[in-house]
Amino acid sequence: FARMHEYGVAPNCFCYNSVIEACSRAGRAEHAELWLRRLMDESGRMTPDLMPTADSFIRAAHAYARKGAYDNVCGLLAEMEEWGITMGGYGLTVLLLAYLRARPRQPERAAMAFRHHCARGLPVPEGALPMLRTIIGDRCFKKLMAERAVHLMLADMQGSKA
User: Fold this and answer.
1) Structural domain that includes position 107
2) Which of 12, 18, 59, 82 is the most exposed, fewest CB within 10 Å of its CB?
3) pTM recorded for the entire structure
4) Domain count, the chain
């Protein structure tokens, strides 16, 4: 970023997201969040190129999810919603990863997050379901799927239209 400024090149959201992702992949959750916060501060200039996106928040949250730090993940996802950005399917997957990696695991929170996600009519990504089953157990998973069968079918239909 310093070199970009040196050459008079202004960073955009893509640049910030790349740094956030690099920090996340390196397991440096606090640094990923720091770069997200810098982007959020920059967006105060109301430049469309500097507005955080769902990717910005979710990439930072993913770093915490890998550590099982679900409180941090929930906080970032809540802030994302405050910015008017819908969580979407990948956000659910990241949240479930946090509940899976937490010690102890968080089955009640995972089931509640899944129900909330479905109640909002958001599509459920296929990859989220095996994680959910692992967290809440087979019996609870089957019960939850029976409750939410209509929503899952709708999500599948929407996905096949894309």
Assistant:
1) 87-162
2) 82
3) 0.87
4) 2
pLDDT digit string, tens, across residues 89-123: 999 999 999 999 999 999 999 999 999 999 998 88
Which domain-ending residue is among 69, 85, 101? 85
> Token digits for 69?
């730090």
Within 10 angstroms of residue 18's Cβ, the number of other Cβ atoms is: 13
Query: Tokens representing 102?
Result: 């937490």
**Distances in Å between the alpha carbon of 31 and those of 25, 36, 155?**
11, 9, 35
Q: Do 76 and 123 share a domain, yes or no?
A: no
Return the residue matching tokens 């979407």: 88
Residues 6+ apart with CB under 8 A from 118: 124, 148, 151, 152
The DSSP symbol for 12 reads -
Tracing tokens 């640094």 back to the chain, one arrives at: 31
The string of DSSP codes covering 56-80 is HHHHHHHHHHHHT-HHHHHHHHHHH
